[in-house]
Amino acid sequence: MKPIATFQDLLIKCNTENKKIYEIAQQEEAKFAECEISEVRKNIEAVLSAMQDSIKEGLNSSELSMSKMVGADCEKLKNYYTKQNGIFSPQLQNVIKYALATAEQNARMGKIAACPTAGACGIVPAAILGISNAKNASNETIINALLTAGIIGKIVAAKAALAGAVGGCQNECGVAAGMAAGAVVEILGGTNEQILNAAALAIKNILGLACDPIAGLVEVPCVKRNPFLAVHSITAAEMALADIQSIVPIDEVIDALKQIGALMSPALKESAQAGLATTQTGLKITESLNKIWNS
Amino acid sequence: MGHSSIFNIITPIMVGPSSSHTAGAVRIGLLAGKIYGSNRPKKVHFKLYNSFAKTGKGHGTDKGLLSGVLGFAVDDVRIKNALEIANELGIDYSFEYAEDFNRHPNSVDITFSGDVEIKISGDSLGGAEVVITNINGYNVNLKGNYHTLLLIYKDMPGMIYKVTTLIQDFDINIASMTCDREAKGHNASMSICLDSPLSEEILESLKTIDEIYLIRNIEVTK
Description:
Number of domains of chain B: 2
Strand content of chain B: 25-35%
Distance between the termini of chain B: 22 Å
Mean pLDDT of chain B: 93
Structural class of chain A: mainly alpha
Radius of gyration of chain A: 19 Å
Number of helices of chain B: 7
Shape of chain A: globular
CATH superfamily of the largest domain in chain B: D-3-phosphoglycerate dehydrogenase, domain 3
Largest sheet of chain A: none
Largest sheet of chain B: 6 strands, mixed
Low-confidence stretches of chain B: none
Structural class of chain B: alpha+beta
Oligomer: heterodimer
Strand content of chain A: under 5%
Shape of chain B: globular
Order of helices and strands of chain B: HEHEHHHEEEEEEHEEHE
Radius of gyration of chain B: 18 Å
Strand order of the largest sheet of chain B: 3-2-4-5-6-7
Number of strands of chain A: 1
Number of helices of chain A: 13
CATH architecture of chain A: Orthogonal Bundle
CATH class of chain A: Mainly Alpha
């Protein structure tokens, strides 16, 4: 049996076996790990529990990162929402709070699940847990959602490395948004086609995103980018659930992502040599950090 | 690209902020610590190269490396306080920062001294994957993703045969191996990746071979 290398392969397998994407994901994983499907699901649950812990700890901390650039913003958001109703629905408010909480937790050397990377760790948990809490989704549904996100990430990773240094932020936060979008559609009861459309729409609309963090640290813009792309993934999920299709199929979107990543200047791929990193403010911060750390 | 695991994508569960510069650093430290041996080192020096040197402070690369040497896993919340913990344990540690474009962008040399001096080089490949590339001048290829048997021995005819036969006698499959030597008849190294862990019995048998100077059974790194 040849491994699933493309989303087309995945869809064909789903249709042949009359299964949902998460069912294929858990069955492939059990085969790979030579274990029972129940064990795969138990391990997925452990990751979800780690994600929940990061959110909880992140929501209760305002400790700054070592550079002091980030760490206190989730608290501001929380305070704002206690005083104001805000424009977002309460579930979307949770999505941005959870994403920010997790990303800040990462920046302050807290514990997170690098799903799919540490810098993009807030997007998938915020979308899955934010939406599932709002919809009172069962534990089994949440596990199905993370399995769905996982296989989306796995198929992308087989073509394009999930690393900002390889393809810019589109390969990290962008792919995370694609994974999250598919997972949300699964929670809301969408079809396999809708799941893959959601992933395609999310990734398609962040192509070309640079990785240009100040001082090369996983902080600015990474931390705040997590809530932005968590909401982006919900937009993609809603559109897909309305049966809006990505004109370019997901496999071709990934080809485009890979090509754009290759064409992107190395200065925009995690090297802190252009973009936000070399703005007047970016350079000023870098200089002062160097003074503190290299003295 | 063959089969792979979903868990490579949705984990590791780790202490942030960077899979390459924090978790990768911990894993290099862990592997280096296992190669050094079971005793806690008295003195350890880290020479960080390139991006590890440039952005290491902000990513906690120093804390990560030291945590690994102390035996902390990538998700251990003590990583943040590794410097203080090492101080309390009386470990003499130091860091040096260098640029060398012949080296990988995220690269480190770890030198242990005390009872025995051993220098280990490693690279962080991204996504918390790492490789130990060199031990005391011998090229190795140790990633921690397999049970690995590491040997330093005297180069002579039949040594590879002796070791691999012994492994085969216990019905263990060799996934891959890397060998290197100083010169003909001098010291040599073997790192053998295995599909299942070695038993105590094999390790005891290896100890009876006089020409093997160092034996390390390195289990899969979490």
